[in-house]
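User: Hi! Is it possible to get a structure for several chains at once, not just one? Here's what I have:
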Amino acid sequence: MKQTKISEAVVRRLPVYLQVLNEMVNREIQTISSQDLGNKLDLNPAQIRKDLAYFGEFGRKGVGYDVVYLIEKIRQILKVDQTIKVALVGAGNLGHALCNYNKYSKDNMQITAVFDDHPSKIGTSINNLTVLPMSELVATVAEQKIRIGIITVPAIEAQNVANQFVEAGVEGILNFAPAILRVPDEVRIQNADFTRELLSIAYYLVREGESQDESDLD
Amino acid sequence: MKQTKISEAVVRRLPVYLQVLNEMVNREIQTISSQDLGNKLDLNPAQIRKDLAYFGEFGRKGVGYDVVYLIEKIRQILKVDQTIKVALVGAGNLGHALCNYNKYSKDNMQITAVFDDHPSKIGTSINNLTVLPMSELVATVAEQKIRIGIITVPAIEAQNVANQFVEAGVEGILNFAPAILRVPDEVRIQNADFTRELLSIAYYLVREGESQDESDLD
DNA sequence: TAGATTGTTAATCGATTAACAATC
DNA sequence: TAGATTGTTAATCGATTAACAATC
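Assistant: Yes, the chains can be modeled jointly so their relative placement is included. Here is the combined structure:
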């Protein structure tokens, strides 16, 4: 149990490794080196080796990493070797999209309950799940042992939903609303607000009338 | 034009500042200090001052930052003081969701064209936009001076769509598909794949049977 | 003036990369 | 054995934070 404190940067790379490795399996590639992985992802091979080495010795010197074995190990690290249940609040288009994505995903993360407080939504069905009113959130989370909450409601309602998730005892929240949410330190919050993403892409646009290649060497 | 190389970390914080500042405007707050901003966002005030100082002197000593003025400046930095046109490929639920979000957003980023190659989608209407076939992508991007592309198609089709966006000459791509895309260096690519986000949240879950508080002090 | 807060330099901290012995 | 590639230590690089003079 050498548990050095693992940085967030490392944790965010693990799912990316998993993605590439899953592609490898599909193409029936059995072994991959940090070099190959690095090429695919534009990452330094030493970084990849170091990332993995935080958690154990998964490779073989002179050979590389066994793809299937490494997938198994990364799944363990990310704790998705077990099924993780997820609740979603907000049965709009985005909520629908996530439920569908989820259906086809082979990770062990399952959206098992959907909530919405709009009368027009309650009782409708998404992907075999009946949309429940918010009043049932706390009980359902407890019953089903749901551990993560997803927020896909308008910004103005997001903090309120977050509060209810916290009350219900989820350990993490994935927030799609463009709002800054306050939750206790022990609850992990992650923002997936696409307006932020778009704005940061805009930064890299070239302003009209400016030359593209000013000392842009690296 | 002091153009030190600005790090990606800085760029990704700017939209967050903008979000808080917009909230301030709504609450008719006129001035904000780096201290206040830092409290709201759990960031070090020195970091915020430094981030802003890369781009100019926007504050007043002893006073703080004028909210409206700072918004204007950050918009300029992010190049959203002008309207930035965006194209979206993939008229599914996620595509719908993004178009709707967009409608209500007050940033100057506008989805002005939607594409999809499924016969059942072509010709339908999303948010006043008619869904066009992929064959019209290149011409439409040129005509409308579209600069950013959003990909909301299944993973397997994503690289193909990316290629077409690149051919059409977009400067940036926001990819929602769980796939690793290859594009030329001059095109900015940003991944917004929610499965990655979910997996990295899972890392922070507490494994059943493990105590939560093992040297978790900081 | 006294108090507050910026912009910026210097110090610290942490993450990435290079290098290489171990070994398959 | 020779070639390849890991795991890991040391070196480098870059980002965050502390501190403080300038000044509103």
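The first helix of chain B runs from residue 8 to 26. Residues 33-35, 45-46, 49-50, 52-53, 57-65 of chain B lie near DNA strand C (CB under 10 Å from a C1').

User: Great, thank you!
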